[in-house]
Specification:
The complex is a heterodimer.
Chain A (H helix, E strand, L loop, with lengths): L4 E15 L8 H8 L8 E12 L12 H16 L2 E2 H4 L10 H12 L6 E10 L2 E5 L4 H4 L2
Parallel strand pairs in A: 1-3
Antiparallel strand pairs in A: 1-2, 2-4, 4-5
Chain B lengths: L1 E13 L8 H8 L8 E13 L11 H16 L2 E2 H4 L10 H12 L7 E10 L2 E7 L9
Parallel strand pairs in B: 1-3
Antiparallel strand pairs in B: 1-2, 2-4, 4-5
C-alpha cells in the first residue's frame, strides 16, 4: 500500500548548551582555520531547537500516534536532562571524542531517541540558530528524501 | 516538480475524551486536554501542492483558487468552532492533530484539480504538529 496516507507527529524541544569545535587531530592553526570563531578555547553557546518526528498507527481510542506525556518524559530523560545548560564537550560523553557540531548532535540525539517504544523515530532536525538547521534520519532513506 | 505552500490560521476549541474509557482513564491518558469544558488553540495549517508550473501562467495552481478552497473547506468548517461538536467529519474521533490532519487531507484532496496535494501540516502550537502525506512521496522531509 505505497499510496496509503501516512501521519507523522512532530514535537519541538529546546535546550541551551555551550560547545567548542576543536579536533585533537588538527594543529592549533588548522583548528583555527577550519572552525574559525567556533574554536575559541572557552567555548560559546546556543539555544538549540530539536524537532523530533515520529510515525506510527493512530490509535483509534486516543487519536494519537504516541502519548505526548510519554514522549516528553522520554526526551527529557534521554536528551534534555543531560544537554540543557551543560557544556556539550565536557558533560556529554559522546562529545569527548567527537566534535560537537550540529551534524554530530543530530546523530547523537537520533541514537538516544531511536528506542522510543510507542512509535517509530523518523528523523531529528536540530536548529542551532534561526539560520542553521540539520536533519538526520538514520538509515531510513525515505525519511531523508526531500 | 515544484512545491507550493499556502499557510492559513484558524482558532478553534476542542477536548479529548473517549466515552469508552472511565473518567479516571480519560484523565490519566489525556491530562489537561480532558477538561470537560474544552480549551482552544490558534492552529496554523500549511498546505503544500506539488505540480509543474503551467507554461502560460507560470503557476502550479492559482493561489486565489487555493485560497477559496481553504476558505470554503477549512475556515468555514473549523474557524471559531468547537471541533468535537461542530465538525461532522471529526464526530466520534478524538480531535488530535493526527486526526485533524487526516480529515483536512480528505477534505482537500478531491478539491485540488491543478497539481496534487503533497502535504498537510497542522500546528496546534509552535512546538506540536502533525503531517499527513501519501506514503512513499517523501513529503515529510520538506520542512
Amino acid at each position: 500500500m505505497s499510496d496509503a496516507l501516512k501521519i507523522e507527529l512532530g514535537r519541538r524541544y529546546r535546550f541551551s548548551a555551550s560547545h567548542r569545535l576543536h579536533s585533537p587531530e588538527l594543529s592549533a592553526e588548522e583548528n583555527c582555520r577550519v572552525f574559525g570563531k567556533c574554536n575559541n578555547p572557552h567555548g560559546h553557546g546556543h539555544n538549540y531547537v530539536v524537532e523530533v518526528s515520529m510515525s506510527g498507527d493512530v490509535d483509534p481510542a486516543t487519536g494519537m500516534i504516541a502519548n505526548l506525556a510519554d514522549l516528553d518524559a522520554f526526551v527529557e530523560r534521554q536528551v534534555l536532562e543531560e544537554f540543557d545548560h551543560k557544556s556539550l564537550n565536557e558533560d556529554v560523553l559522546a562529545f569527548r571524542k567527537k566534535v560537537p557540531t550540529t551534524e554530530n548532535l543530530c546523530i547523537e540525539i537520533y541514537r538516544r531517541l531511536k528506542s522510543f517504544p510507542q512509535a517509530k523515530l523518523e528523523r531529528i532536525r536540530v536548529q542551532e540558530t534561526g539560520n542553521n538547521s540539520f536533519e538526520y534520519a538514520g538509515e531510513n532513506l525515505e525519511g531523508n528524501q526531500p | 516538480m515544484v512545491l507550493l505552500t499556502r499557510k492559513i490560521e484558524f482558532a478553534a476549541s476542542h477536548l479529548y475524551h473517549n466515552p469508552n474509557l472511565s473518567a479516571e482513564e480519560n484523565r490519566r491518558i489525556f491530562g489537561k486536554c480532558n477538561n470537560p469544558h474544552g480549551h482552544g488553540h490558534n492552529y496554523t495549517l500549511e498546505i503544500t501542492v506539488a505540480g509543474e508550473p503551467d507554461p502560460v501562467t507560470g503557476m502550479v495552481l492559482d493561489l486565489k483558487e487555493l485560497k477559496e478552497i481553504l476558505e470554503r473547506e477549512i475556515m468555514q468548517r473549523m474557524d471559531h468552532r468547537h471541533l468535537n461538536y461542530e465538525v461532522a467529519e471529526l464526530a466520534g474521533k478524538i480531535p488530535t492533530c493526527e486526526n485533524i490532519t487526516r480529515v483536512i487531507w480528505q477534505l482537500l484532496e478531491p478539491k485540488i484539480k491543478q497539481g496534487r496535494l503533497h502535504r498537510v501540516r497542522l500546528y496546534e502550537s509552535p512546538d506540536l504538529f502533525a503531517d499527513c502525506f501519501r506514503n512513499g512521496s517523501g513529503a515529510a522531509g520538506n520542512s
